[in-house]
Each structure stands twice: as C-alpha cells, then as structure tokens.
Amino acid sequence: MVCDGKGVIKLITSDVEATRAKLEQVHADFDQREILTVTMADRPGALGDFARVLWEANINIDTIYVLDTAGGYTELAIGVDKLEEAKQLPLAQY
Question: Cα–Cα distance between 66 and 22 in angstroms, integer?
Fold first, then answer.
C-alpha cells in the first residue's frame, strides 16, 4: 500500500530475528511491533462481538489479517493501540 507517498509492506513472521536481519541486510526502513492473535468461531457476528469487547475497553483496532480458516474457526492477527491492555481481556471466548 502507499502511505504518505511511500510504498509500505506489512509482514507477519514466525521468525522475527531472521526477518529483521534480512531487512537490515537490504537497508530497508522498518518498524517492528507485536500483534495480538485470536482464534474465533467462524460465524456471522463473531468479529463484531470481539470488536465490541475492545471498544468497551477503549482499545482501537488498526489492522486485521486473516491467518487461517479451518474447522469452523478463523485465526486473526490484530494490531491494536494498547496491546498489553488487550492481552488482559477475556478474548478466548470468541
């Protein structure tokens, strides 16, 4: 995507150290942050219910990626503005 006239790529990696090393090797500018991963039922309204819990805690979602869908569940990677607070919420029920 383009942000402020620059190309931006967002990556989710299972090997943070190797990814960082490769980006440094090619002299890429990058930021790094931890994201929240959640597995929820693949049903209408599940994401809305989940988002309401964050909203009620005054936590904003800025990014959502679908990582996997299988067996009636969807695994999401979610970027939030207050990660440590989000980790304390009862999010496993979704």
Answer: 24
* Residue 90 binned pLDDT confidence (cut-offs 50, 70, 90): confident
Containing 75, the helix (H) or strand (E) segment is: strand 73-80
Whether the CB-CB separation of 66 and 76 falls below 8 Å is answered with yes
Residue 36's Cβ-side half-sphere holds a number of Cα atoms within 13 Å equal to: 27
Between CA 29 and CA 83 the distance in angstroms is 23
| Reported confidence tier of residue 4, pLDDT bands at 50, 70, 90 | confident
Q: Which CATH architecture is the domain 2-87 placed in? A: 2-Layer Sandwich (3.30)
Q: 6-11: long-range contacts (C-beta < 8 A, 24 or more apart)?
A: 10/63, 10/65
Name the pTM for this structure: 0.77
